[in-house]
Amino acid sequence: MKLSAAFVLVALLGLAQAVPVTVSEISEKSSQGLRLVQLAEDAQPVWKTEDEVLQFIREEVNFFDITDTWAQEQDLPQMKMAAIAYPTPSHQSAVSPLIVKLSTTNMSSWLSSLTAYNNRYYRASTGQAASVWIQNTLRSIATSAGRSDITITPFSHTFLQTSTIVRFPGAGSDNAITILGAHMDSINSSNPMNGRAPGADDNASGTVNLMDVFRVLAQGGFKPSSPLELHFYGGEEAGLLGSNDIAINYKSTGKAVKAVLNLDMSAYSRPGSTAVIGIMPDFTDASLSTFLTQVVTTYSKLPAVKNSPCGYACSDHASWYRQGFPASHSSEGQFPNGINGALHTISDTTSLSGFSVSHALEMSKVALGFAYELTV
């Protein structure tokens, strides 16, 4: 996301005034409606009102909201990412027949359903209804495919909207999880609770990428050697709430994670520009990003390009990186100039000039290849 220089200055002044947070004040201040946010890596978190947090969103200043997780994080050990040797993509003969089964028709239909909600805000009833719709749609696909081995589980938070975790169990001894993730919430930054926020690109597009990858793998009888999970996060727009909850849960319960691929906005190609897939260089694992670049080259018709840094807490991959897990993030174009500028407004619709389900299809190909190569 682009940062407003003036507002970043205000944010940094806030950091300069920050003092260490004590566990005893968490309950007191959160009960007053204050939110504990972190604006930079290794910076002390600061208390902000909900209006101040909303101003961060309007000014595109990235942050973690750690109100509900800060105390738990203090009890977790610092974990340095262990080096993982990722393979060179080599399963084209198996992946290519799956890729041709990906469907822009299904993606378009699901986009229509998701954007029909007034908004998918994490505290709104429509935001939770959208989450339930995703869960029910995935269950229907699994049932029709006869896949009782696949689990589809809501993950509850302190807010109304649930996240969703889909799991293909691993058949082998390797229990390290490969995760494909996308946030499913949306926001109208002018009126979060009641404003219209279709969120077609941000991030119904990444959501339907995962849904169609799930459909193809489930219907194709895919049974990985190591576990594969697809995550649909709630509350991303309000400070990476859903993914941060889940990443902390996985760390605290000792789950091993092989790789995370985050999909956030995949369906926009700026008119007049060359279509590409961007690879995010910051708050990501360098070796995994190299592997992701190879997957793009192998399975997509679009070239991979290295993005400019997107900054601290710019999307859900940062939650996993924060907890010491290897994470990667791909984008619909070269960041920042190739990214949809209508995010967080009523104009983020499928009719926006530059919106293309065919462009989004390329990200589905990448996600499917990424999952297959790391779990067979």
From TrEMBL:
InterPro entries: M28_fam, Peptidase_M28. Residues 1-18 form the signal peptide. The lineage of its organism: Eukaryota, Fungi, Dikarya, Basidiomycota, Agaricomycotina. It comes from Pterulicium gracile. Its cofactor is Zn(2+). GO terms for molecular function: aminopeptidase activity; metal ion binding; metalloexopeptidase activity. Its EC number is 3.4.-.-. Residues 165-351 form the Peptidase M28 domain. This is Peptide hydrolase. It is an enzyme of class 3 (hydrolase). Pfam families: Peptidase_M28. One of its GO terms (biological process) is proteolysis. Belongs to the peptidase M28 family. M28E subfamily.
